[in-house]
Amino acid sequence: MAFPSPLVMLSVLAVAMASITFLATRDPAPTERRVDTATIASADQSPSPEPEATPTETPKPKPQVKRGEVYVEVYNNSGIKGLAAATATKATGVGWAVVGEDNWQGLIPTSTVYYPPRLERAGKQLALDLGITRTAPAVGVMKRDRLTVILTEDAPR
Hints:
Blueprint: H1 6-24, H2 37-45, E1 71-76, H3 83-93, E2 97-103, E3 112-115, H4 120-130, E4 134-137, E5 146-151
Parallel strand pairs: 1-2, 1-5, 3-4
Antiparallel strand pairs: 3-5
């Protein structure tokens, strides 16, 4: 019995990983909600009750993101030469610990900051710092100890 060559096995694995990454990075379908105008109209006509005095609780401050303690990798998924390097320089300039930059192969709908669950707040902060509007949980071969930025043609420059 002949075994498939390592190149064939590697090709099959690469196609499978690309498919998984594509499915995981698609934009979710928009959600819609029905608004009942009769309920809104009746709520507007009812007298509003007097507000009761309730003690106000001081909200606990959210812990600040320590940019220098979070690793970041930046990937270029566009035809724009030097985009990953320029974005990595921008991220480093505001304090992020950029540990790598390279090109990304795959279909990404728009520039995105991907984060592992424990770094969600940091991912959203990095997106704000870079002017990127989309964040998403890390998928596929992305490392789970860092943020992954994948840039497309719409990336802020």
